[in-house]
Specification:
94 residues, 0% strand, 73% helix, 4 helices, mainly alpha
Length: 94
């Protein structure tokens, strides 16, 4: 089982624009290659369990999720600054 999950993790990491590629890039700086692959394999195992146990479908969360998350973060920061009494004008970067 471990070998299959590790091979799946290697394949998932090689897929451009996938969630697992983003996770691998984040993990490899701290953990190194082998442990990062192990972490991805563990996440794949948990994902497979969730799909089988709860009978849900898998939806890929790629870079579009990060864009939406960044937009929510910006709006939350703006609200917080305005609640602290600052006036904020957003202009696109040149």
């Amino acid at each position: 089982m471990r070998r299959v999950l590790n091979q799946s993790a290697h394949a998932a990491v090689k897929t451009k624009g996938s969630l697992f590629e983003l996770l691998y890039r984040r993990f490899v700086t701290r953990l190194g290659h082998a442990q990062a692959i192990g972490a991805i394999a563990h996440r794949l195992c948990r994902l497979g369990w969730k799909i089988l146990q709860d009978n849900v479908t898998y939806e890929e969360r790629g870079p579009t999720v990060n864009k939406a998350r960044a937009h929510r973060r910006v709006s939350k920061m703006l609200r917080e600054l305005r609640s602290l009494g600052y006036r904020v004008d957003l202009r696109p970067a040149p």
